[in-house]
Design a protein that fits this description.
The complex is a heterodimer of chains A (136) and B (399). Chain A has 3 helices and 8 strands, in the order βββαβαβαβββ. Chain A is α/β, with parallel strands linked by helices. Chain A has one domain: Glucose Oxidase, domain 1 (3-Layer(bba) Sandwich), CATH 3.50.30.10. In chain A, strand 7 and strand 8 form a beta hairpin. The chains are: A alpha/beta (136), B alpha/beta (399).
Amino acid sequence: MKEIGIRSIVDGKVKSTAVVSPISISFLEGVDPETGIIMDQENPLFGTSIADKVFVFPEGKGSTVGSYVIYGLQVNGVAPTAFVVNNAEPIIVAGAILANITLVDQPSEDIFSFIKTGDSIIIDTSKSIIKIGKKE
Amino acid sequence: MFLTKYQERMLNGEMGEAISKSFELIVKLGDLNDADKLIPIKNAQIAGVSYYTVGESIFSFLELFSKDKIKVKVPSWLNPAGMDTVKWKEMGISEDFAEKQNRIIKYYMDMGIELTLTCTPYLIGYEPSFGENLSWSESSAVSVANGYYGARTNREGAPLALASAVIGLTANYGLHMNENRMPKVIIDVQTEIKHFSDYSALGYWYGKNFKGLIPYFKGLKESSVDQIKMLAAAMAASGSVAHFHIENQTPESKLVDLGYIEENFEFLVEDKKSVYSIFQQTKEQADLVAIGCPHTSVDDLKKISSIVGDKTLRKGTDFWIFSSKKELETPGSKSIINQLENKGIRIFTDTCMVVSPTIRDNYENIITNSTKAAFYLTRKGQNKVNLQSLEEISMEVFE
């Protein structure tokens, strides 16, 4: 498994499967809070669920109301188990705090050059690392 | 960051989940921005009201505050909703939408938040004072508060402004600090800025070209708050600009250090024309004129009334103006409102063309004098928009 340093914003220990978006995410209108399914037609992940996955994307964008969508995902039981982003901006930070979803950012390497949807991923914020295992 | 013993206890949940989450939001974002401490705020202006923009998710969030019976700690008021709370049927709003919108408003009311439902609180008696700290979230109001009044607020996201209102505090970073309020770009305005739409065009051009940077405008004549709000709203929409200075006018313009300037630019007549040409999208007859982004003042209404004179609105074009209930209660405004309504103009309050669904759903070709409205109405290709001055609009749609 490949080990990468990160900064922790919302702490947690998580083991799950990665869902990787190559483009920035607007949670408002971009993710369905009822189902956790990506609704943005311009995203190659269109139709994919982020429920119980580690959701990896470059950064958040769009309306600040996106934080409420993240909270809504948790209330509806379809939240991801963690977020891994390049730079955590206030929409994602506020949403992750409200929903108590593990959030890490500033990976020590360009993770988008090798991480793929379906890879296994372990996050341990107490050690400030994530581990990525390739899909078999 | 430094927290008092009391603040630490709140953060750790002594007063329940809603207070604890509110502290956590403010403290964590403060830490990420290297804030040294929490500072008291005078008041809060809270976005995230329109059901059209917030959707279903808002209910679970507001329930978090409702179950702990949370009241705001400082005077707080609301951004526009998705409909006129009285005349919503006349706007073409459905029963289902109205029911959900009213539920959202009730949650905020129960928290002790005043139902101003406006993006221009400074027009209705809530002018900020120089140097005071605020947590405002409507992007145009943030810019007016910082630039025109010299108050201090970051561009707060909707959850952050609400959290600040609940604890009466924000973290000390960003535009709360002197050094972050200095201008980075000088813009020498070399063309006439006369109409509201000209101010809006200047703001749109600036925001688009200098995203996030604080400007120092030279060559702008003394401007009214109604003119400034058009400039500020446009810069915020096109470029997330949250603060500005105007030479010899805005309160910090004499205090700022021009040593931070990185770029000098001129705003020329062709730059102004370029913005008008971006928003010349249709040759078909407009089915709607939409004015009031940001919300109109009674002074604006008087101006519209005098421009239109005794002409009447042509058939096939609706004319909607958006304002706030409190502004329309200004003494002496009744006769102006009657004059405008007699010409076929509709005046709605509590909402606007950007946050209400009916404009996008029911109209296609729209004329406005606001680049912010034009920007949002055309962003997903829903509407075709022409940008015109009130004078041009009057000539075109009144006979």
